[in-house]
Amino acid sequence: MKPGNPPLQSVRLLDQLRERIRYMHYSLSTEKVYLYWVRLFIRWSGRNGQMLATERIRTAPEVRDALSAVA
User: Fold this and answer.
1) Which of 21, 26, 24, 1 is nearest to 10 (CA)?
2) Which candidate, 26, 29, 24, 31, places its Cα nearest to that of 8?
3) CA distance 71 to 46
4) Where are the domains of the chain?
5) Tens place of pLDDT for every residue, the chain, 71 residues?
6) In degrees to the nearest 10, what's the CA dihedral of 7, 9, 12, 16?
7) Were both Cys, which of 7, 10, 23, 37 would link to 15 (CB 3.0–4.6 Å)?
8) What's phi and psi for 7, nearest 5 deg?
9) Integer Cα distance of 31 and 49 in angstroms
């Protein structure tokens, strides 16, 4: 990330991701792909395919399992 990042304005995770991507001047297609993968991970880690807002930090094995499941 660029030094001196401005504070995020939104409280919602996906909106924060959009803010940061736009701050970094990534392309719109990159933004869409990043949002897709984050949503997929949230759904994978939720219950019954529901998107869950969670404060719990994921461990490396959980993230690795998620990526293996979608690969």
Assistant:
1) 21
2) 24
3) 18
4) 13-70
5) 556 778 878 888 888 889 989 998 999 999 999 999 888 877 777 666 555 555 455 667 777 776 677 66
6) -50
7) 10
8) -65, 150
9) 23
